[in-house]
Amino acid sequence: MRIGNGFDLHRLEPGRPFMLGGVRLDWHSGPIGHSDGDVLLHALTDALLGAAGMGDIGEWFPPTDEAYRDADSAKLLAKVLEAIGSQGWRIENIDTTIMLEQPKLKDAKPLIRARLAELAALPPDCISVKAKTMEGLGAIGRSEAVAAWVNVLLARE
Ligand code: MG
Fold first, then answer.
1. Alpha carbon of 41 to those of 32, 36, 62: distances in Å?
2. Ligand 1 center to residue 7 CA distance, Å?
3. Ligand 1: distance of its center to the CA of 157 in Å?
4. N or C: which end of the chain has fewer CB within 10 A?
């Protein structure tokens, strides 16, 4: 078995689509990024690469590469899932924490969990989506940024 962790943070800007865990949130601002800025999928991708000892998301998909401008992070995740699968790894579970002041994620959490289950081809009970505010403190607390932590456990025979 192998454990991995991933972290990501993006700045928020008015008028940007807000992608989070492969789900589009209905909100007036969203993350800035070379890709679609989906912090949860980026942290998950990094956690998978970390567990498998296969580098990091910046090495796989360089932000200087025009091929990844406004890229769908679900497609980047799919490439990494294929690569770890070809090494014989399967995912035991995914545990995530999103740090975001607004919007509240109460209604979005089940949708994000279902979407992660779909993307990772796992039953939903293998996936946890938790959300925290920063109590108004710091950049996230001022709604200037969104961040995510992800832990994964991989196993192979
Ligand atoms: Mg990122």
1. 14, 10, 16
2. 9
3. 32
4. C
DSSP states of 76-127: HHHHHHHHHHHTT-EEEEEEEEEE-SSS--TTHHHHHHHHHHHHHT--GGGE
Amino acid at 157: E
Flag whether the pTM goes above 0.90.
yes
Q: Tell me the CA–centroid distance for residue 13 and ligand 1, in Å.
A: 15
Query: Looking at per-residue confidence, does 62 or 115 come out higher?
Result: 115
Residue 134 identity? M
Centre of ligand 1 to C-alpha 83, Å, is: 19
CA of 27 to the centre of ligand 1 (A): 19
